[in-house]
Design goal:
This protein is an alpha/beta fold. About 35% of the residues lie in helices and about 25% in strands. It contains 10 helices and 10 strands. Bound molecules: adenosine-5'-triphosphate (ATP) and magnesium ion.
């Protein structure tokens, strides 16, 4: 583990503009992610997980705070200066059904980031796309098929292959596995673990599921209503949770339903309403 974190998030604040003013979805959040490690971000629905992910990949511009990627603050960079950094942080989206263009063939979806990276030759892009599709465990027959012809787990793999095509330093997986059934979740997780072992990829995994967290993340951040309420090495946080949410999460982890990957009932909170 290197001493300089790959990602250093400091005092991140994200306000959404809603009718009647601003709604603070992320409130003074700080954490670091070291190279080659996986950080899990957990917390109930609506606590700000996806908002943090979108800020890190700069799909949204934070209200304030710093997001240091290898020492460069990307929080406030204008789009022009952000462009060369975009490929370094890739996101696999929460909804595998909505995040892929249904009209494109899998190989074209995966080849597009290669083109953006400057791989000029069509043949070379095809070759690399085929390698990536193979890397995520899909057969070569997948190359010519389009997203509607795939299962949820297969789409998720295409999303991961597309993200890897950018050769990112950091992969942000927003509940990449939650829309999928249990055995598929396990396969996708195993794939992420393999990739990490083989390529030293650094990951942020956003999840509701403690089984997932324990399996793949060294470090853990627990959020509640936009704030970090607990953080540290996963084993330590789970050994002595101080927050009711983390305790409930830990109890739920011992519940067979959670071990098989379903969200524990007690932790499924309705999405918080945005104040009008
Ligand atoms: N575009 C938006 N405009 C206004 N409010 C938003 C917007 N997107 C999210 N919010 C609000 O910000 C808060 C955080 O949302 P976010 O999607 O980050 O939560 P989450 O932790 O990812 O939830 P889930 O586990 O359900 O995916 C919620 O209260 C949500 O209603
Ligand atoms: Mg979310």
């Amino acid at each position: 583990m290197s001493d300089t974190p790959l990602l250093d998030v400091r005092n991140l604040v994200v306000d959404y503009q809603v009718r009647g003013g601003g709604f603070r979805a992320v409130d003074d959040v700080s954490f670091t992610v070291h190279k080659g490690r996986t950080l899990a971000v957990v917390g109930e629905s609506g606590c700000g997980k996806s908002t943090i992910a979108c800020a890190i990949v700069r799909l949204i511009k934070p209200t304030s705070g710093e997001i240091l990627l290898d020492g460069t603050d990307i929080a406030a960079l204008p789009e022009r200066r952000l462009r060369p950094l975009r490929s370094r942080v890739q996101m696999v989206f929460q909804d595998p059904y909505a995040s892929l263009d249904p009209h494109l063939r899998a190989q074209d979806i995966v080849a597009e980031p290669l083109r953006l990276r400057g791989v000029r030759s069509v043949a070379e892009r095809r070759k690399q796309a085929a390698e990536l599709i193979d890397r995520v465990g899909l057969p070569s027959s997948a190359l010519d098929r389009r997203p509607p012809e795939f299962s949820g787990g297969q789409r998720q793999r295409i999303g991961i292959a597309r993200a890897l095509a950018s050769s990112p330093d950091l992969l942000v997986c927003d509940e990449a596995t939650s829309a999928l059934d249990v055995s598929v979740q396990a396969q996708v997780l195993a794939l992420l673990e393999d990739l990490q072992r083989d390529t030293g990829l650094t990951c942020i995994v956003i999840s509701h599921n403690l089984g997932v967290v324990r399996q793949i993340s060294a470090d853990l951040v627990v959020l509640r209503a936009g704030k970090v309420v607990e953080s540290g090495p996963t084993a330590e946080v789970l050994a002595a949770p101080t927050q009711p949410y983390t305790r409930a999460l830990r109890r739920a982890a011992l519940d067979p339903a959670t071990m098989t990957g379903r969200k524990p009932r007690a932790l499924v909170a309705p999405r918080e309403e945005v104040p009008a």
